[in-house]
TrEMBL record, chain A:
It comes from the Bacteria. It holds the Pfam family FIST. Residues 229-368 form the FIST C-domain domain. SMART domains: FIST, FIST_C. Coiled coil: none annotated. Residues 35-228 form the FIST domain. The lineage of its organism: Bacteria, Bacillati, Actinomycetota, Actinomycetes, Micromonosporales. This is FIST domain-containing protein.
UniProtKB/TrEMBL annotation, chain B:
The lineage of its organism: Bacteria, Bacillati, Actinomycetota, Actinomycetes, Micromonosporales. Residues 486-739 form the EAL domain. Residues 345-477 form the GGDEF domain. InterPro entries: Biofilm_reg_signaling, EAL_dom, EAL_sf, GAF, GAF-like_dom_sf, GGDEF_dom, Nucleotide_cyclase, Rev_trsase/Diguanyl_cyclase. It comes from the Bacteria. CDD domains: EAL, GGDEF. PROSITE patterns: EAL, GGDEF. This is Diguanylate cyclase (GGDEF)-like protein. It holds the Pfam family GAF. It comes from Winogradskya humida.
């Protein structure tokens, strides 16, 4: 089948220290002189974000949709993996429609915010649609945001996206129409005349034996097997000090909940020494059986290939014109600098000649099978034809 | 390798059961069920309506969903495609189904079984939410009715404020406030009644001179009549004439207002006057005059109470709570019964017994216990009308006498008492939680006897404690008969051990894969010459209440241990299961007694499994854990009897040193096990496997059940189909058989 020749997807990636310069460089590269329908910007919080967005706007021109969020790093077909840079993706040409909507989790709650932005799809009249969500990643309970969106759109529309991040502060940032906001969900409805495909994969494995979450409170695990959770984790990891668990040179602490097609992975980010609990980024269901999860470089890198192949397989045989990536910051932590270079090379090899780009996130959104849509430690890809 | 489904059922159960209302429970149940089986869409059908539709987007295919509720099939969804959809019934209590649909592949039998489990969990949650809502509605309805009655009453009785003011004064008196405070309540109440007018209470002092003094004032100051040195003309006149005096302050100038003085009596004697100054002219105040007169009448009664209360109290009151004691209560009760306006007027008595008071008294000391009793007395009194009588009968027992109260009203008061006592008490700087059980007796009979009524209420209370605690039970005549039966059974039971009326039977525990007898469970039987065979269901609770269970349990252990030790000479691997009551478990010498019994019998501790019920473990988990830990050190094994009927909490299974789970017969009782039964049994079996426990199915009564349990991987079983409980003499023959699953008993 023929691809629509005047449709395009572009990527730009800059590590220029000056924020305005970085924004302008990356956008100019992504557009290559073309007029976009929408521009997606992901950058480190270390940039002067308003100046960077002003530069993006200046390059993109008025009236063009600009969305994005703060990231833990960037990856693209142009420059591989970086930190403190900016990656810009853009799409344009015939047969694309992009509509956006923003809602705040602080206003009515996570679920309502998710449901609200799903209405970005209202009136969208294209045969293929997807909803991309760029969410506040540090307000807890991202599951509820995705459940809210799913309650509106249902299974007919794939959901993708990521949780915006900040590795130094308490809030992450979302970008919507030249504004830099926090605590928000940006919904981007993408309508296309050609199919879109979503891929997801991780590369983690269980460490036996399993444990029961005998006590939890929202994103906190109070007890594992009836014992203070922190004590169990320390023992299982052969450590004595909580600080060791989360030190920079230590592997990521992750647990997997038993699911039909494998594990639902949740990252543990901190411990509370006062009540000996463990703190994660998403809800920890009481009564669930879980495993400690470990990974090795090879299977993580192999997961990247799987994700890309899945996304491309969703295009009904058409060649991809570009791929949005949402890669977990945790994978980056597990792979190390050399590992992420290998990952970028693997994605390039899996998508020969296809531009791709996106942020390292606090968590990924991809609803393909079933209705569960939030993930951790995965690479989520959205391929466009 | 563990299957993913069993793990998720527990997670699901926890989530769904936390829902506050039906809509929330349904949404959560549908969403989580879909997520767990990776289904795209789901809904719940109740009757002919679809609830909690999930994953269909804006265009819910209602018709298609309703048709799936009856049978599994294909569910076409616009823009999505055809889903494989299955319904799972919500159970017997709720007519409806949980429906989930998946796009990529049909549900496996294992998934369908799990979905059935989930649907049943939802059914249970919905039923309990409905019961809760019904109760709430009923309570709201009752409260509304009570409010309406009160409004009618107030309309009939002139002024609401009058009643409220009087109640404030009554409360000040009944709370034994100092007299000046009571008098201030009188004047401020009067002032409020008269729209903030200045008011003074003038009382005559003792002695011949009868000097008048201002006992209390309220409202604006600086008025002559409230001046201690004034002549108190109007007050003196009101006292002398026993009439309400209404007079212009200045007969020549109505602008000075009107003075009203009403006489106040104490114990029948003229004691003073209540005086107020109103701003208008004399002819304006006929209504206020009436009010003030009525009010002064009540004040007189209140003051009489206050003055006489001390003297009476000393002889007839309980010093800890200040409430009437048993003697005074019965006197008041008799007086009320004798003076009923109409013989049909119902009189109710509440017998209130505190739950867990003894524990507080024992652990925090008598002083704290006394403080708690005084606080309880205050709360009980706040639940009843001022005209009702509250008493402390002794210990932690209270009684309330309600005048003219039909059964509904009396029950409502009982419920209020339970609610208020349930709230924490702050004693000695810490929050104390106790409870109460209430028995109610009511009479309309002409020749009612206070002693009998009180003892009837006591019987009802006893029943409430047994059914509850924290319940209200109304006395019914059969309780009396039952009480007598109970006493005679208890007497017989106490003799039975000396008279050697107890016997043991043994029921084999069979390995389901080979049919071999692995062990025997000792079962107690009581044959009384007069009563015949008495069921353990009837006598075990009595043995527990009377404490006889400790002795009886020890007898069972010693006898069965000796017996099994004898059988082990020819069947060295034979094990023994013995049931243990909660009373035995918390007995300080329990572990030592077990050790002794096994040593005397020569039975190794590893051959013995003690069976406990879930309720025993949950009622006093700390004591249970301590006792079980020391038994475990001896090498004795532990089993949870009736697993699945109670809390079945994963947490306690991990905390307690348990070796065996017995699946309650209730789950296996049906001749043919349904998918739901199987789902639950499978869950328990897998749970047992995950936690490394032996799983025993009880009550296997036919070959189909046996086969089903074998298939589910259950390792051990008991039941009539395998072997009935047998006399010791018959057991060697049973042991000689190679397989019990091949031969019918």
């Amino acid at each position: 089948m023929q691809s629509l020749t005047d449709r395009w997807f572009g990527v730009g990636h800059s590590v220029a220290p000056d924020s305005a310069k970085a924004g302008a460089e990356a956008t100019a590269a992504a557009l290559s002189g073309r007029t976009p329908k929408a521009v997606f910007v992901f950058c480190s919080v270390n940039h002067a974000v308003p100046a960077l967005l002003d530069a993006v706007r200046a390059e993109a021109g008025p009236g063009v949709t600009v969305v994005g969020g703060s990231s833990l790093g960037e990856i693209s077909s142009e420059a591989g993996a970086t930190t403190d840079g900016v990656v810009v993706t853009a799409l344009g040409g015939d047969g694309f429609d992009v509509r956006t909507r923003i809602a705040y989790v602080g206003g009515n709650g996570h679920r309502e915010a998710g449901a609200d932005v799903a209405h970005a799809l209202d009136g969208m009249d294209r045969p293929h649609t997807a909803l991309m969500m760029i969410c506040e990643g540090m307000s807890g309970n991202p599951h509820e945001i995705v459940r809210g969106a799913y309650s509106v759109v249902g299974a007919a529309v794939p959901l993708v996206g990521g949780l915006a991040a900040n590795d130094t502060g308490k809030r992450s940032f979302q970008f919507h129409d030249d504004r830099v906001v926090s605590g928000a969900v940006v919904g981007v409805a993408i309508g296309s005349d050609a199919p879109m495909g979503v891929g997801i994969a991780h590369g983690w494995h269980r460490v036996e034996p399993p444990m029961v979450i005998t006590g939890s409170d929202q994103t906190r695990i109070l007890e594992l097997d009836g014992e203070p959770a922190l004590d169990v984790l320390l023992r299982r990891r052969g450590m004595t000090e909580p600080a060791e668990l989360f030190a920079n040179n230590t592997r990521l602490q992750a647990i997997g909940l038993s699911r039909r097609s494998g594990e639902d992975i949740r990252i543990i980010v901190a411990a509370d020494e006062a009540d000996r609990s463990l703190i994660g980024l998403a809800t920890m269901p009481q009564g669930a059986i879980c495993w400690l999860m470990d990974s090795d470089h090879e299977s993580l890198v192999a997961g990247a290939t799987t994700s890309c192949e899945e996304a491309v397989a969703g295009l009904d045989g058409r060649p991809p014109i570009g791929v949005f990536t949402f890669d977990c910051g945790g994978r980056r932590g597990a792979l190390g600098d050399e590992g992420i270079r290998a990952e970028a090379a693997t994605i390039t090899a899996a998508l020969p000649g296809v531009p791709f780009g996106g942020p390292y996130t606090m968590g990924e959104i991809a609803r393909i099978r079933g209705s569960l849509g939030t993930h951790a430690l995965t690479l989520v890809t959205l391929a466009l034809a | 390798m563990y299957t993913w489904s069993t793990h998720q059922l527990t997670e699901y159960f926890t989530a769904v059961n936390a829902s506050a209302d039906e809509t929330a429970a349904i949404s959560l149940a549908v969403e989580r069920a879909c997520e767990m089986v990776e289904a795209e869409a789901g809904a719940v059908v109740l009757g002919d309506r679809v609830h909690g539709a999930w994953g269909f987007g804006s265009d819910v295919p209602t018709k298609g969903i309703l048709s799936i509720a009856r049978a599994p099939g294909t569910l076409p969804v616009p823009a999505l495609g055809d889903l494989y959809a299955v319904p799972s019934a919500l159970g017997e209590a709720i007519e409806g189904a949980l429906i989930v649909g998946r796009l990529d592949e049909p549900f496996t039998p294992e998934e369908r079984q799990m979905l059935q489990g989930m649907a049943q969990v939802l059914g249970v949650a919905l039923r309990s939410i409905r019961v809760l809502i019904d109760e709430r509605t009923l309570r709201a309805e009752r409260e509304r009715e009570a409010t309406e009655r009160l409004i009618l009453l107030e309309q009939a009785q002139t002024r609401q404020r009058l009643v409220e003011t009087l109640l404030t004064i009554q409360r000040a008196i009944s709370n034994r406030k100092p007299l000046p405070e009571i008098l201030d309540a009188v004047t401020s109440g009067t002032a409020a009644l008269l729209g903030g007018a200045p008011v003074a209470l003038i009382l005559a002092e003792g002695g011949r001179g009868r000097r008048l003094s201002v006992a209390s004032t309220s409202g604006p100051e600086g008025y002559d009549f409230a001046d201690p040195d004034s002549s108190h003309t109007e007050a003196r006149e009101a006292m002398a004439t026993a009439q309400v005096i209404v007079r212009a302050v200045d007969p020549h100038d109505p602008a000075w207002g009107t003075i009203v003085a009403t006489p106040v009596r104490v114990t029948g004697e003229m004691a003073g006057a209540l005086v107020a100054q109103l701003p208008g002219s004399v002819d304006q105040y006929s209504e206020q005059r009436e009010q003030l007169a009525a009010f002064a009448q009540q004040v007189s009664l209140a003051l009489t109470d206050a003055r006489t209360v001390e003297a009476v109290r000393e002889a007839h009151h309980d010093p800890v709570t200040g409430l009437p004691n048993r003697g005074l209560f019965l006197k008041i009760f008799n007086r009320v019964l004798a003076s009923r306006a109409a013989l049909t007027e119902p009189t109710s008595v509440l017998f209130i017994d505190l739950d867990r008071f003894k524990a507080v008294n024992d652990s925090l000391g008598h002083e704290a216990g006394d403080q708690l009793l005084a606080a309880v007395a205050g709360r009980i009194r706040a639940c009843v009308r001022a005209s009702d009588t509250t008493a402390r009968l002794g210990g932690d027992e209270f009684a309330v006498l309600l005048h003219n109260s039909p059964v509904d009203a009396a029950t409502a008061v009982g419920e209020r008492v339970i609610e208020t006592v349930k709230e924490p008490f702050n004693i000695a700087g810490r929050d104390i939680f106790i409870g109460a059980s209430v028995g109610v007796a009511i009479t309309r009979a002409a020749a009612a006897n206070s002693d009998t009524l009180l003892s009837n209420a006591d019987l009802a209370m006893y029943r409430a404690k047994k059914e509850g605690p924290g319940k209200v039970v109304v006395y019914e005549p059969h309780m009396h008969t039952e009480a007598i039966n109970y006493l005679s059974l208890r007497t017989d039971l106490q003799r039975a051990l000396q008279e050697h009326e107890f016997r043991l039977q043994y029921q084999p525990l069979v390995r389901l894969d080979t049919g071999e007898t692995a062990g025997v469970e000792a079962l107690i039987r009581w044959h009384n010459p007069a009563r015949g065979l008495v069921s353990p269901v009837d006598f075990i609770p009595i043995a527990e209440e009377s404490g006889l269970i400790v002795e009886l349990g020890q007898w069972v252990l010693e006898t069965s241990a000796a017996q099994v030790a004898a059988w082990r000479r020819t069947h060295p691997d034979l094990t023994l299961n013995v049931n243990v009551s909660g009373h035995q478990l918390v007995h300080p010498r329990f572990a030592a007694n077990v050790t002794r019994a096994l040593a005397v019998a020569g039975l190794p501790s590893g051959a013995v499994t003690l069976e406990l019920t879930e309720s025993v473990l949950m009622s006093d988990p700390d004591a249970a854990v301590a006792s079980l830990a020391s038994l475990r050190e001896l090498g004795v094994q532990l089993s949870i009897d009736d697993f699945g009927t109670g809390y079945s909490s994963l947490a306690y299974l991990r905390e307690l040193p348990v070796d065996e789970l017995k699946i309650d017969r209730a789950f296996i009782a049906r001749a043919e096990l349904t998918g739901e039964d199987l789902a639950l049994v499978r869950t328990i079996v897998e749970l047992g496997h995950i936690l490394g426990l032996r799983v025993v199915a009880e009550g296997i009564e036919n070959a189909a059940q046996l086969e089903a349990l074998r298939r589910l991987g259950c390792s051990y079983g008991q039941g009539y189909h395998l072997c009935r409980p047998s006399n010791p003499a018959d057991i060697p023959q049973v042991l000689a058989r190679r397989s019990l699953t091949a031969v019918h008993p």
